[in-house]
Amino acid sequence: MQKVKLGLVGLGNIGRTHIHNIKSMEQIELVGLCDTVQERADRFAAECSTKAYYSHLELFEQSGLEAVIIAVPHYSHPAIASDAFERGIHVLCEKPLAVHVNDAKLTIDAYAEAKEKFPDLVFGMMFQERTLPYYKKIKEVVGSGELGQLTRATWINTAWFRSQSYYDSGDWRATWAGEGGGILTNQCPHNLDFYQWVFGIPARISGHAHIGKYHHIEVEDEVTAYFEHDNGMIGHFIVTTAESPGVNRLEIVGENGRLLYENNKLRIYRNHISMLKHLRETQDGFGNVEYEEEEIEVDTNVESGHKVVTEKFIQRISTGEGELIAEGTEGIRSVTIANGIILSSFTKQMVAVPFDADQYEELLRELISTSKFQKSVSKELKTDMTQSFSK
Predict the structure, then answer these.
(1) Are residues 15 and 142 in the same domain?
(2) Do 155 and 137 sit in the same domain of this protein?
(3) Kind of pairing between the strands at 220-228 and 234-240
(4) Both 254 and 384 in a single domain?
(5) What DSSP assignment string belongs to 285-342?
(6) Mean pLDDT, residues 299-306
(7) Residue limits of the GFO/IDH/MocA-like oxidoreductase domain (predicted)?
(8) What percent of the chain stands above pLDDT 70?
(9) Per-residue pLDDT for 291 more than 60?
(10) Is the pTM of this model over 0.85?
């Protein structure tokens, strides 16, 4: 297989994770690294025996790259992706696709326009949690219809603990102007993507976002959301970066039983009869449906994570075959849910989806323009990024 000439834009914490993976992939030729901090670009380029660039446009126009991984702060994703599309460069974008729905739409439109000229153009999203064995099995079980009509999904994911030093490690972090949000924009695009991947986008959203409740930040660090779907299913989404020890507990209820994921175990509670049929037909006022409990075996001895997503991306470019872990155009879905939660919280009203994306963008601009938050920035954070990924 001929090597794909790849460039990487953004050499912060997640960018360095990509460098580690790229080094282990024989099918990639790393032709350039780009960061606006010149010392950082020079240092990592020297380590990788490639060339340093300080502007993504210079990387695009001088390196001879065929594809790029975008790993910069969120607001820059749409512009860099659009510049790549215009030049026929394949894009693998870190989450989120954009900070708000309007920018996500602009990115997707730019991709659609570029495909008219470059029909084989590949656009992928780095939603690596879709590759996690337990999440794949949950998707499989729900998709099989075994649970029947779904009635409720409750996800409590507080395993996203972040210290104040984490937020102080960059001037862009946890600000409306620099990051565009908090846990919904940074950590939970993965969770929101998984939610819509399995259940679809809610029809109505009621959100409660607490701003700087536990950390000295101006964005949300604790969120509780309630979702309604047109098929009758309701959802609960509870997340925070301020709970330790945290928990990742997902409970999915259907007429035929309940699926429970927690502590790297997946259990199913199978009803002997549909609970909906039982509640309509039984003459017993209090008797529950009989059920059987079983632990679902999941093979965890498989490769997952960022590398798998990248390999699928490179394979599509090289062969034109194979499915991406997540198409780039799917990225707007998690952005929609995140924006809906924040819009509901600030307006103190339930939001119908699709909502007015202009209203959300105006809210965001107002939060930026009226911000009086003083950001304190400490030394560059030194940490093991693998600790931040869900398992």
Answers:
(1) no
(2) yes
(3) antiparallel
(4) yes
(5) SSPPPPEEEEEPP----S--SHHHHHHHHHHHHHHS-S--SSBGGGHHHHHHHHHHHH
(6) 96
(7) 135-259
(8) 96
(9) yes
(10) yes
What is the DSSP secondary structure assignment for residue 262, as one 8-state letter?
E
CA gap 323, 340 in Å, rounded:
29
- Among residues 182, 224, 233, which one has the least CA distance to residue 204? 233
For residue 193 the two structure tokens come to 């993507």
**Cα–Cα distance, 71 to 77 (Å, whole number):** 8
**CA pair distance 188, 179, nearest whole angstrom:** 13
C-alpha atoms less than 13 angstroms from C-alpha of 190 in its C-beta half-sphere: 22
CB atoms within 10 A of CB 323: 9
Whether residues 353 and 260 share a domain: the answer is yes
> Cis (ω within 30 of 0) for the bond into 96?
yes
Are residues 190 and 390 in contact, defined by beta-carbon separation less than 8 angstroms?
yes
Answer yes or no: do 46 and 152 share one domain: no
Q: Are 278 and 289 in contact (CB under 8 A)?
A: yes
Give me the domain span that covers residue 218. Answer: 132-300+334-388
Do 8 and 149 have their domain in common? no
Q: How far is CA 24 from CA 4, 221, 308, 327, in A?
A: 14, 35, 12, 24
Residues 115 and 161 grouped into a single domain: no
The set of long-range contacts for 16-20, using a CB threshold of 8 Å and a minimum separation of 24, is 16/44, 16/385, 17/306, 17/385, 17/386, 18/69, 18/71, 18/306, 18/310, 19/44, 19/48
pLDDT in tens, 140-151: 999 999 999 999
When divided into structural domains, the chain yields a total of: 2
Around 170, how many Cα atoms within 13 Å sit in the side-chain half-sphere?
Answer: 16
Are 54 and 174 within one domain? no
Please tell me the number of Cα atoms within 13 Å of 119 on its side-chain side.
0
pLDDT value at position 377? 82
